[in-house]
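User: Let's play a game. I give you a shape written as tokens, and you guess the letters that built it. Ready? Here's round one.
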């Protein structure tokens, strides 16, 4: 999966260094400026363009006279104020400002939960920059939690010199992972993508074969099918779970179909019983893509050991991480042997440099396995935290007509890799991308959901079935911050921002313009 929040600072961090603010007004601040003659309607129109929720009123001399936030204007309208009234009547004249010649940290220190917008003025009192609460406290979509035994185990690798793909932590991590899964055999890999590729190769999937893949997933799921010289067949997903629709799967089976890759997307498991029944009926292999679903359960069973092979990712944005890395699990000793051989250049076990197949270097390092073992020790803590975050999101956002929350199936344990929802533009008055931009202005990172695979240049050689549900979700879906170190207060901050944006938008749409 793609990186999320990799370059973001941690919450509460403040930029350091000396920044010199320009004397002339920059493009960013220019969008926030309005003359004193502006009306309430003018302010609403500017706010609706997305300017971070604040406008600045300047006189003919360019000197700042007052400020108004979306909340100030909203209250004025709700109190019956005419849209053509002078907005200056409602502006805040006693505002807090920063100095252009001050160190940035001094100006940032003026921001707080109460003062969320800080105009920076030059010596004459003209605004030259605008700092916001988002500059002080940016919330990444995902960030890893590395507060366990990671350093201890890595230092042990360094002290002993075992830092490559051999070492005690490889075996420890594999054994601990299998124990967590409740059985099977586990093999570390260099990524979740290589785990999928190993599974296809070990199962003998190749040229002239078709593999059914949900249209709604990250590109790696389809990439590995192409790497195996097989043909991906893209099918639609269920509108409730956003995962592979068994009916769409059945309609796509042909005499060339050899496998299916159900993807447990965004942490929600697929409906595996009908998928497995269809696979048995048509003699198909089942490779579970569990990259986003470690710990998710289907009818009390952990995903990954329901099909023939389960594949996991430990990229930095996953529930547990090794930086890069993955794992394959299976109940089959024969598949374990085949994948182990292919993972290590195709060499025969017990006979060094003797190659049975043209294999791959898909091994994980001992350093990564050390991190993975430490992460796995805290997985229950991570999953419990995510369940709490999802519960809080659901309680706060339920009832908003502009948002369509994802429903957890009664047979599922969703681990909420990312808390995702769909925007209803007809109710909200803005589309998904506009909402994401407004949240970004408030320092909150979001991500659109995945694009339909069938519509992307890389997969034009695949076979596309009709996928209307995927197209709809891909247009409206949005993922909100979800992480192992998030708190309830963090969720409240995201939801407060959503509430403010939606209320402002509804007030704006209710007025004739």
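Assistant: Ready! My guess for every position:
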């Amino acid at each position: 999966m793609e990186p999320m929040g990799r370059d973001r600072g941690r919450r509460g961090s403040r930029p350091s260094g000396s920044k010199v603010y320009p004397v002339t007004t920059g493009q960013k601040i220019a969008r926030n400026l309005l003359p004193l003659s502006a009306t309430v309607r003018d302010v609403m129109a500017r706010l609706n363009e997305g300017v971070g929720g604040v406008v600045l009123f300047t006189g003919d001399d360019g000197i700042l006279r007052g400020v108004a936030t979306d909340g100030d204007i909203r209250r004025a309208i709700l109190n019956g104020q005419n849209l053509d009234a002078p907005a200056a009547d409602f502006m805040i004249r006693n505002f807090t400002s920063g100095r252009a010649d001050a160190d940035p940290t001094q100006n940032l220190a003026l921001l707080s939960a109460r003062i969320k917008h800080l105009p920076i003025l030059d010596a004459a009192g003209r605004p030259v920059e605008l700092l916001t609460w988002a500059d002080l406290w940016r919330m990444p979509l995902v960030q890893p939690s590395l507060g366990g035994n990671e350093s201890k185990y890595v230092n042990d690798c360094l002290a002993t010199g075992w830092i490559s793909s051999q070492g005690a932590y490889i075996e420890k991590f594999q054994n601990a992972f299998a124990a967590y899964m409740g059985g099977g055999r586990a093999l570390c890999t260099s990524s979740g993508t290589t785990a999928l590729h190993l599974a296809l190769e070990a199962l003998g999937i190749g040229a002239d074969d078709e593999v059914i893949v949900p249209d709604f997933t990250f590109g790696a799921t389809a990439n590995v099918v192409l790497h195996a010289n097989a043909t991906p067949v893209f099918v639609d997903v269920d509108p409730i779970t956003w995962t592979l629709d068994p009916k769409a799967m059945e309609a796509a089976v042909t005499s060339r179909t050899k496998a299916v890759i159900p993807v447990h997307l965004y942490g929600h498991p697929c409906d595996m019983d009908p998928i497995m029944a269809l696979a048995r009926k048509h003699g198909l292999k089942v490779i579970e893509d569990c990259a986003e679903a470690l710990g998710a359960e289907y009818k009390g069973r952990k995903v990954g050991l329901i099909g023939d092979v389960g594949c996991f990712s430990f990229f930095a944005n996953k529930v547990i991480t090794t930086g890069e890395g993955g794992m394959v699990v299976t109940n089959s000793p024969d598949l374990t042997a085949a994948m182990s051989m292919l993972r290590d250049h195709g060499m025969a076990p017990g006979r060094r440099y003797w190659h049975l197949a043209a294999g791959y270097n898909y091994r994980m390092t001992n350093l990564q396995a050390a991190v993975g073992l430490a992460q796995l020790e805290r997985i229950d803590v991570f999953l419990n935290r995510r369940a709490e975050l999802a519960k809080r999101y659901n309680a706060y956002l339920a009832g908003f007509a502009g948002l369509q929350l994802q429903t957890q199936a009664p047979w599922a344990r969703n681990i909420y890799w990312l808390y995702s929802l769909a925007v209803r533009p007809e109710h909200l008055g803005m589309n998904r991308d506009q909402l994401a931009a407004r949240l970004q202005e408030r320092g909150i990172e979001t991500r659109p959901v995945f694009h339909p695979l069938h519509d992307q240049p890389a997969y034009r050689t695949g076979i596309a079935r009709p996928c209307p549900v995927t197209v709809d979700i891909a247009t409206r879906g949005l993922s909100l911050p979800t992480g192992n170190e998030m708190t309830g207060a963090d969720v409240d901050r995201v939801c407060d921002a959503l509430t403010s944006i939606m209320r402002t938008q509804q007030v704006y749409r209710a007025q004739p313009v």
